[in-house]
User: Which sequence fits this backbone?
């Protein structure tokens, strides 16, 4: 196992000690994940049950919209499921189907809650009446795939370019902060094709801090174009 791990920079766009070294899997290494569930659970207010197939679907979804370990919201820890083959989806249509497969529906709900946009370039949340979207819940709202290859270093530089000394407070309330802890509602991962994929959650900033949505747009524009 030790031969599969090396020191890696959490902040590769920075210099010197500010880059923050940490043990990490070497890029391209293979590892095994075992999924288990002691019993299926029926949904209290929904249709169906959470079973091993649901768990597998969630893991597949995590492999494309997220990652494992630290800085997974900024491209670190991206991974591909290679066995069984082709388990990590890479196009919006397949990803959209997978998201809907993981959503718990209410008893009288028939429509899919996520769909491809009319322009076919992103996945969007469709519940206009907001029955599934309470104000204080960071729900998935949008998924987009970029056009140019990205690395964690390039993603780090994009984040660096958006944040400056004049917008530190707004940046923390909008794109994530350590004090108070606020995980970023913009999640950036890297597909097996090396294209970036950006998931946008509903922004629920802590303690009613000032949110500047233009900062999210600026970051996403740099990643997706």
Assistant:
């Amino acid at each position: 196992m030790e031969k599969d791990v090396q020191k890696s920079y959490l902040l590769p766009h920075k210099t010197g000690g500010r880059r923050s070294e940490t043990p990490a899997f070497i890029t391209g290494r293979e590892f095994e994940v075992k999924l288990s569930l002691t019993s299926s659970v029926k949904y209290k207010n929904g249709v169906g049950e959470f079973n091993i197939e649901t768990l597998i679907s969630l893991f597949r979804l995590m492999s494309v919209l997220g990652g494992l370990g630290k800085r997974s919201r900024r491209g670190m820890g991206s991974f591909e499921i290679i066995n069984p083959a082709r388990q990590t989806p890479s196009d919006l249509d397949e990803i959209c189907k997978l998201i809907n497969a993981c959503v718990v529906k209410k008893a009288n709900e028939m429509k899919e809650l996520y769909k491809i946009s009319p322009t076919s370039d992103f996945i969007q949340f469709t519940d206009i009446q907001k029955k599934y979207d309470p104000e204080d819940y960071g729900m998935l709202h949008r998924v987009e795939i970029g056009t140019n290859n990205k690395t964690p270093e390039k993603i780090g530089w994009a984040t660096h370019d958006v944040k400056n000394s004049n917008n530190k407070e707004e940046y923390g309330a909008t794109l994530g902060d350590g004090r108070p802890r606020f995980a970023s509602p913009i999640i950036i991962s890297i597909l097996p094709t090396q294209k970036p994929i950006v998931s946008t959650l509903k922004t629920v900033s802590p303690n009613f801090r000032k949110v500047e949505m233009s900062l999210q747009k600026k970051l996403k524009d740099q990643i997706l174009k």
About this structure: The mean pLDDT is 86. The beta strands are 5-9, 21-25, 41-42, 49-50, 114-116, 122-125, 140-145, 186-190, 196-201.
